[in-house]
Amino acid sequence: xxxxxxxxxxxxxxxxxxxxxxxxxxxxxxxxxxxxxxxxxxxxxxxxxxxxxxxxxxxxxxxxxxxxxxxxxxxxxxxxxxxxxxxxxxxxxxxxxxxxxxxxxxxxxxxxxxxxxxxxxxxxxxxxxxxxxxxxxxxxxxxxxxxxxxxxxxxxxxxxxxxxxxxxxxxxxxxxxxxxxxxxxxxxxxxxxxxxxxxxxxxxxxxxxxxxxxxxxxxxxxxxxxxxxxxxxxxxxxxxxxxxxxxxxxxxxxxxxxxxxxxxxxxxxxxxxxxxxxxxxxxxxxxxxxxxxxxxxxxxxxxxxxxxxxxxxxxxxxxxxxxxxxxxxxxxxx
Length: 334
Fold this sequence. Notes:
- The protein has 334 residues and is an alpha/beta fold.
- It has a single domain (10-325), classed as NADP-dependent oxidoreductase domain (TIM Barrel, Alpha-Beta Barrel).
- The chain has twelve helices and ten strands.
- Helix 3 packs parallel to helix 4.
- The radius of gyration is 19 Å and the shape is globular.
């Protein structure tokens, strides 16, 4: 495993982060989830990402149990706040001071830790003054409940505003967690340049485009049994935008490129996002422990310029690049 600094800080994270969205507390039994965490630790992963909204807080509980007994100082534990949790009442979502303060306490209890290394605004909240949100984050840092603050899926303008307030309030906004893959490149035009200017790193999710870049989905053929595309608990909905024959055919063109580079398809996908110098870590998930060992081999891989060009030629116009696709809900559900 290799490690990178997160933003303009002295804080290092593993190039591969283990995330438990869509799996722990919902799709995967707790004993298997614990085996996945153990496999991640054995592979050299020290960074773990979750959120209170995942499986309505159950994912945090599972991760806390799985990491119990590990040396806390050797781990980097991330979680997030924004989405509706608990009974999903009027104050059970968003980035109000009330919700943030109550949420950090709940997350720490479930994760069985005194602090998280990175506490992230899961989306931008248009209905709470940004000053209120950032003041709450500043207080959490001063209380020692979070060491650093990050955000997720914020636009370049939102990052600039949040970063300016964090400096005024005396804490560091060091990261953004966007979706990023060969097929989803919406951060490249605006978010990445702004982040480089501000000293903010990307911790990217879905580097394999919900599994499409693994190459297991073939054009004109039904999705394999047990795959995310057949999961009616949420996985199928997330992946459906990529389940077009033209996209699947383009992905198949990546197979010889991966073979020539001595990589599996998942390794190529993860290695590709790590070529972006603004990316500090790529989040991977797993429903089986053996999936982790393959993806981890992408750490430290350097893809030559000719390989990157071949990838661009294969994907071409199939990739989504519109910066406007970086967005947060404009209205709360309650």
